[in-house]
Amino acid sequence: MNYHWDWMFFFQETDDGLKYYDWILSGLGWTTFVSLASLAVALTLGSVLGVMRTTPKRWLVGLGDAYVDVFRNVPLIVQLFMWFFVVPELVPEKLGIWMKQDLPYFVTAIVGLGLYTAARIAEQVKAGINSLSRGQRFAGLALGFTEWQTYRYVRLPMAYRIVLPALTSEAMNIFKNSAVTYAVGILELYFQYKQIIEKTSQVLEITIVVTLSYFILAFVMNRILAFVEARTRVPGLIVGQKGGK
Amino acid sequence: MIEIKNVSKWYGSFQVLTDCTTQVSKSEVVVVCGPSGSGKSTLIKCVNALEPFQQGSIVVDGIAVENPKTDLPKLRARVGMVFQNFELFPHMTITDNLAIAQIKVLGRGREEAVDKGLKLLDRVGLKNQAAKFPGQLSGGQQQRVAIARALAMDPICMLFDEPTSALDPEMINEVLDVMVQLAHEGMTMMCVTHEMGFARKVANRVIFMDRGAIVEDAAKEDFFGQPRSERAQTFLAKILNH
Questions:
Q1: What is the pLDDT of residues B42-98, one digit of tens each?
Q2: CA quadruple B110, B113, B119, B124: dihedral sign
Q3: Is A2 helix (H, G, I), strand (E, B) or coil?
Q4: What letter would DSSP give residue A33?
């Protein structure tokens, strides 16, 4: 192979006076920020939707189901383009102009990625709640809890514990999915990766570094949630205990 | 205290309760028995509106359960209920299980709620289990905690829905002992159970249900002496001969 390895190029200066490693670090920062912010949006909205879909109210269930159907069945990149290019044309003109001119790109990207992931989290939260016995709700109601209080104090705390492994996957996915936001102009890690390839043609080095970066981000998320899982494990309960071996 | 009048309930076109009428007076202990599927659990769940019913009325302490204007959480907070599968909250310690509804529903301070909970825990003989989680207790112990949790709300009456049906035989008595003690203290109780020994000991009246209807509603002595319905006689013969 005639490839010319040059690991030192990361320390070379770029057109804008920074070093290439600065671009990587900046990309990492944006990836982390966009991912965590989207995760916050997704967890909040996903929980609300998941709860809606388990209530006795038909119209709430229908609304939640419809949301999940739409947002799970359209590719993420198409959804992002929808938010950037189509939605501003559909809303009232003033709002549309504001969305195109004043609303920072990253906000739209975070909302887009968050709403997409919310549909998946809604599915998991619903599954978690439905896996609990009907009697848990009855027990809460019988003590005088309102329907909402049975969620807050009885059902959600157990449902989250049960679906935490699935939520962990979702949290790791969001870091990987955030790469798609380069297509709408977010200067995150994948954007910087493309840019560095164009400028330097040191494809192998930069690919290795970017691969490792994504791996580490997702892995750290995994470890953090594994810690949360261990801390919230309920003594004496089979669910959530380490099986096998 | 509890007045059930002409209550009927359907799941779709299937009728689960047919024109049920009975009442439980203050300090009275009423045992509801009958074959499985006879609607006894459904009926008792109608009393605190955990199950809706389409016809008739149930009045608890002067409040109509079926009235849409009734503040159900407030009413339920005053009616204790114990379930077949205990239904303690698995992610909370025993102490928190006892305290949470006192704090969140009755607005008691945490200290007062814990204090009250621990006193009741002591009463059901489980004082030293306060820091444990439900999954670390036996079924009988969990059910005693569940009774203490209901009592912590200072209920005006208690509903028991097959409280010993999910228990191993050697644990049934520890739960029944607590219930007998409650009955002797004058608690108003409606108990769905097959424990005829318990019924003999403390019940004032026994209700026998079959296919969603109340077939027999008699004073204990009459019920065990000479039940009027043939169906109740057959049922008794089956469960008493063992």
A1: 999 999 999 999 999 999 999 999 999 999 999 999 999 999 999 999 999 999 999
A2: negative
A3: coil
A4: H
| Residue A21 to residue A12: CA distance in whole angstroms | 8
Residues of chain B positioned with their CB less than 8 A from the CB of A146: 73
Residues A192-231 have pLDDT tens digits of: 999 999 988 889 999 999 999 999 999 999 999 999 999 9
- Residue B26's alpha-carbon distances to B66, B154, B165, B183, B188, in angstroms, are 21, 15, 26, 11, 5
Contact between B176 and B195 (Cβ < 8 Å) = yes
User: Residue A104: which region, alpha, beta or left (left: phi > 0; alpha: psi -120 to 50)?
Assistant: beta
Q: For residue A241, what pLDDT is reported?
A: 44
State how far residue A137 is from chain B, nearest Cα, in angstroms. 9
Instruction: Name the interface residues of B facing A (CB cutoff 8 Å).
Output: 45, 48, 50, 72-74, 76-81, 83-85, 87-91, 100-101, 104-106, 132-137, 149-150, 153
Q: Nearest CA to CA, how far is B150 from chain A (Å)?
A: 7
* pTM of the model as a whole: 0.89
Does the distance separating the beta carbons of A139 and B105 come in below 8 Å?
no
Q: Which CATH number fits domain A31-190: 3.10.20.310, 1.10.3720.10, 1.20.1600.10, 3.40.50.410?
A: 1.10.3720.10
Instruction: Find chain A residues with C-beta within 8 A of B76's C-beta.
Output: 141-144
Residue B101 corresponds to which tokens in the numbers above?
A: 């509804």
Taking one residue from A and the other from B, the number of pairs with CB-CB distance under 8 angstroms is: 83
Supply the pLDDT for residue A242.
45
Q: Which residues of B touch A155 (CB under 8 A)?
A: none
Q: How many helices (H) and strands (E) does chain A have?
A: 11, 0
Mean per-residue pLDDT, B134-160: 96
Q: Is the ipTM of this complex over 0.90?
A: yes
Query: A25: distance to nearest CA of chain B, Å?
Result: 41
Nearest to A144 among B85, B101, B135 (CB): B101
- Closest CB from B48, B83, B100 relative to A153: B100
Interchain CB distance below 8 Å, A236 and B48: no
Supply the pLDDT for residue A238: 62
Chain A neighbors of B134, CB-CB under 8 A? 236
The two structure tokens encoding residue B151:
């009592």
Q: Which of B77, B84, B132 sits opposite A143 (nearest CB)?
A: B77
User: Average pLDDT over chain A, rounded to whole?
Assistant: 92
**Per DSSP, what are the bridge partners of residue B158?**
B80, B189
Residues 6+ apart with CB under 8 A from B72: A141, B49, B65
